[in-house]
């Protein structure tokens, strides 16, 4: 009975469909085919989608999986921003976030060949592409004006080796490039009280930096301070192995540094720069200034130590220490005396020359979002992305709603009032949707500007940054004669390949194996070298070199050089 | 009645063996079986040629051996001691406390362990320093050759109570009249344990031993993964971690499968030999 009913409804729909299609013959090209019974339903749906462009769309829910943990699962239309987008497009996404291990989760998708409609595979991008999990997005980018506007200039970089586009990256700069006034990238950090006590010296070289730390610790013997700490836990080990690159005045290209003139990629893990860095740590350790537990602590213990007020200095990337730094800053906002413990970033190099800690405008090719082969209606999804990339919607997703979460002054500059800033706390960000649309959707790069010159990201708008500063912040910046933290650092040189770590490597390729093995060797030997007594330093270093020498480093460098030359050629 | 079970067994235990074929291919996910490239023993050769493989195998065997011996000895000792207790409340209390840690996940347990061993206020270091046995805190997790010991101790702490349950159950099966008779003959407490309790436990001990020998390459990977770091890598990395690092996270499923087959074959041999030995000595056995 029920079966009959559905059958007859279907038939009736098909008939009405073909009737409408028949009437609109003049506009509908698909109808030029001789009409037989089989083509009737097809033409019906074709005419239905033609109608959709005028009428309000049916509501539809797609699934969205994000391979980055840390947010609560939610429907986009339960947030203010998501609701507004649903009103415009009729599309809702059921967002799911990673719990557990990324590779396991992605592996399950691949093995079953069943994916969510939209997938943000984070580090597992190559696996999904290899398994044929993503559809080619190139035709859609041609079709939709906003997609074309945002991605058009980057199409060459987005195209994979088989000529298709599988990934919409999150890093396409639209408009001008606004530098981040904060330091979210690498820096040598030091407690503010250290600078205060030393009379705000200009610290440029590694020796000066360690001298500063040493003097402070020696003067405050009774406080049981830790001079220097490094982060080594699991994949975050690069916080300990990357400094030689930065100390030579290069930005974070990963395992290689790239010569600006010859564009040769060279690894540095076995060079004198690394030796010099480890020797410094070894000396610190011998003086009792280095925290030996650096090599056994996990990430949580590390963050806890940074928040404990006991650690004088360390090297790390701003985004990794956010939790600790925000805690310290919040405390300093309530009680200015606590400002002493907030960390201040310094651009330190071996020789005090030009630093390159700040990210140049870059293009991360191996992170992004794709539409999968399981997607029910890719066109509808891409139409949603197109709407999302409209300038108005980009303003909404980062600034919010005028009068509620931001204001515009008579010169057209966006800003936030004190009340708005206090209102936008974590709970609000979640409810409003800032948190969900912060990243991991087709978007302008955070460093982009809007057509009217305002910064896309509120935190990058100088007015907002200034308002967020405490008196103490202004005081210390004033001592160095700068307005923002990033002004402490040299402006970045353009590097079209940047970041080199973002160049995709094939699964199980020699490059990937080199990286895995190199990680293993450095993780094993660096602790030995640093913690050795100074007279054993040289022999430990030689033992490491011997082990490191077994890797095909030349092949790895050659591959990277070719990739970088390829990128440069493609831009010519 | 057993037919549905047979179907279940077939589907979930035998059909997956089909997956072993990927060890002989350069496996690419989502491609059909006929599109895969067959490479024979290549991945097995790669496995055995890898320097790290034998180090990893040594660690696995060592850690399993330690766990096996320590696990048996401590569980049997605790079970016997509990059995000798006459005070029911105290007995239950000890039992409950000792099997509590079994229910803590390794993630939490590893945090507890690394906090206890921390050089920065960890209780072990504090205690040793207070007793004057050491001058400076020791980086327990940073010294490779301490790792096996730390792992063995952690496993005992976590599982000893749980493991006693089966022995306590076995002890209740021993006829009390034997104890009475022994007492009449003038056997003391230790004589009774030696001549009645232990022989009563023997079949259970042997069966469990056989089963555990079969699992000797399965040290589990959670404690090693969670407590391991660069400094103790040489002693902490076991087969499962090796597979995780070189197989699964690099998308080399074929190598992972090859290592899995290797494990199965070794386990199979060990299980059959243990069972065969038990049979020869006329003891209780698995099959």
From TrEMBL, chain A:
Keyword Isomerase belongs to the record: no
Signal sequence region: 1-26
SUPFAM superfamilies reported in the protein's UniProt record: Periplasmic binding protein-like II
Key words, A-Z: Signal
Comp. bias intervals (Low complexity): 35-52
Keyword Zinc-finger among UniProt keywords: no
Region named Disordered: 26-52
Name of the protein described by the UniProt record: ABC transporter substrate-binding protein
